[in-house]
Amino acid sequence: MSEAKATTNFIRQIVDRDLAEGKNDGRVVTRFPPEPNGYLHIGHAKSICLNFGIASAYQGQCHLRFDDTNPEKEDDEYIQAIQDDVTWLGFEWSGPVRFASGYFDRLYDYAVALIRQGLAYVDTQSPEQIAEMRGNFTTPGRHSPHRDRDVDENLALFEKMRDGGFDEGAAVLRAKIDMANPNLTLRDPILYRIRKKAHHQTGDKWVIYPMYDFTHPLSDAIEGITHSLCTLEFEEHRPLYDWLVEHAAIEAKPRQYEFSRLNLNFTVTSKRRLKLLVDEGHVNGWDDPRMPTLAGLRRRGYTPAAIRNFCESVGVSRADSVIDMSLLEEAVRDDLNQHAPRAFCVINPLKLVIENWPQDHEESLEVPQHPQDESMGTRRMPITREVFIDQDDFREEANKKYKRLVLGDRVRLRYGYVVRAHDVVRDDQGEIIEIRCSYDPDTLGKNPENDEGQGKLRGVIHWVSAVHGVPCEVRQYDRLFQVANPAKVPEGGHFLDTLNPDSLRVLSRCLVEPALANAEPGSRFQFEREGYFCVDQDSDAQRRVFNRVVGLRESWPREA
Questions:
Q1: Quick one: which of 150, 174, 240, 455 could link to 188 by a disulfide (CB 3.0–4.6 Å)?
Q2: Whose CA is closest to 226, among 258, 246, 256?
Q3: What burial class does residue 257 get, using C-beta atoms within 10 Å of its C-beta: 0-12 exposed, 13-18 middle, 19+ buried?
Q4: Is residue 397 flagged as an active site residue?
Q5: At what angle do helices 42-57 and 76-88 cross, to 10 degrees?
Q6: CB under 8 Å, gap of 24 or more: what pairs does 357-365 form?
């Protein structure tokens, strides 16, 4: 699958309309605004591709801004990881990396301005009282007893909050909107709360922090964002977004537009659940190749182009849907089929001795890096008297449907000679440990004629020289969960109950051809007849480690 061409969608239609009407002085400015409280996952990739793609398509700008309003959950590790992910996907943000915390002084001033307008007040009820008086979807909220405090008192109390005069939870700043509104977001939402925690950007300067719903729209306005694109769960927050933009003394008036998030089966994309998997050791970190994080997908061997193509093929709409994991895997498979060089790896080695091969004789075969792409060139493969084949490629007896080596019959060693198996060697337990065969020296690069009753070759099998093969570890990754919707579990159950116990299988006796002895971490190959593999970062000079990216074909049934 070549890189997909961008297709029109309702967001592009909105931008086209705005440009035609001369809005925003012809500017298109988007932003990708993650909270630095975890690693990005495949769902974020859709938002990244959309925001950066829109900006690029209209010669506009896309900002990378961290909406860092919660120092308790944020970390510099996440900030760096998010930048790495955006860069890896192939995008470049406009200007410097931005932080909402860089606007904390201005946001405080906007809060003071709302108080002066009589649109915000300090509430000193307990958090439990505030929650109880907020009501629910069937019961309107009730006014706080502190809602009608005068402006001067609210200003003094807010200043006391800022100066550390209250304990955590003892006071909040709330907007004064509508406690009877059916949209609970507008029932006097909290704008500021007390958190006596150091911030990764501002240190100990602040003990009050603005809420996300207050920070986000005003940061958009400060930066002159024209099209604030977010997922559908923020739709009910849009009235508050508009209310804050309307009442803040900022010239720019951004608009929010919502699109459906990327929901993928056989995985979870909740940061809370992903963090639980990491913290409890169910996976080996945020970049575990079984994780749906971009760091995990990158380490496993997924390509940026495949993820971009996948996001483009999914499309942008307002209709929620669940995408089958196999579609993402197929996008990766299509990309690697075109661009991954081929290599031989024997997963379960079984020795094959060519008895009529001269002792100590070696030959070097020139083989293509890619059978359909000559531009990739060739590589050299040594063939020796003893080679290893895969255990699954040999049977003592088999019917005609079995297209590999059978005792008494012939196959071709791929790119090499035709061999015939005629005997086996067993260990003390009766297990076959060695196959004895002979080769036809006149079959290199030739198809042997079907004469003397020999019959057709059964097939072609891969191999690795026993002398020059490089020992390696192969990690066969599978889906992390056994069920399509891990988040939907029976009452009393837990999403961890659906973990796939076979999501990782480590094979330590594998052999790879010598051309891969120094393959760099991140390099991807198709191990012929086995699948697509990537050199893991754990590889070193003493041990090569390969992660299975995807198999050669889909192995899981698609959801009906």
A1: 174
A2: 256
A3: middle
A4: no
A5: 60
A6: 357/384, 357/385, 357/439, 358/385, 359/385, 360/385, 361/385, 362/467, 365/415, 365/416
Tokens (6 digits) for 454: 């020999």
363 is catalytic: no
The secondary element (H helix, E strand) that includes residue 305 is helix 304-314
Whether the pLDDT of residue 560 is over 50: the answer is no
Q: How confident is the model at residue 453 (pLDDT cuts 50, 70, 90)?
A: low
Choose the catalytic residue: 65, 187, 261, 420. Answer: 261
pLDDT value at position 557?
Answer: 58
* Calpha distance 370→342 (Å, rounded): 6
Specify the pLDDT at position 535: 98
Which residue is catalytic, options 46, 193, 271, 412? 271
Q: Identify the CA nearest to 353 among candidates 377, 388, 311.
A: 388
What is the rounded distance in angstroms from the CA atom of residue 174 to the CA atom of residue 122? 6
List CB contacts of 21: < 8 A, sequence separation 6 or more. none
Catalytic residue status for 73: no
pLDDT recorded at residue 3: 46
**pLDDT tens-digit profile of 114-144?**
999 999 999 999 999 999 999 999 999 999 9
Set out the domains of the chain in order of their start, with CATH numbers.
10-264 (3.40.50.620), 271-339+472-550 (2.40.240.10), 343-468 (2.40.240.10)
Summarised one tens digit per residue, pLDDT across range 228-269 is: 999 999 999 999 999 999 999 888 899 999 999 999 999 999
d(CA 60, CA 225): 11
Task: Please state the φ and ψ torsions of residue 276, each to the nearest 5 degrees.
Answer: -65, -40
Please answer whether residues 387 and 352 qualify as being in contact, where contact means their C-beta atoms are separated by less than 8 angstroms.
yes
What 3-state class would DSSP assign to 61? strand
Residue 449: per-residue pLDDT: 57
CA distance 345 to 370: 15
Catalytic residue among 31, 35, 46, 342: 35
Q: Are 404 and 428 in contact (CB under 8 A)?
A: no
**In sequence order, what DSSP letters do the residues of 365-378 get, joined into one string?**
EEEES-TT-GGG-E
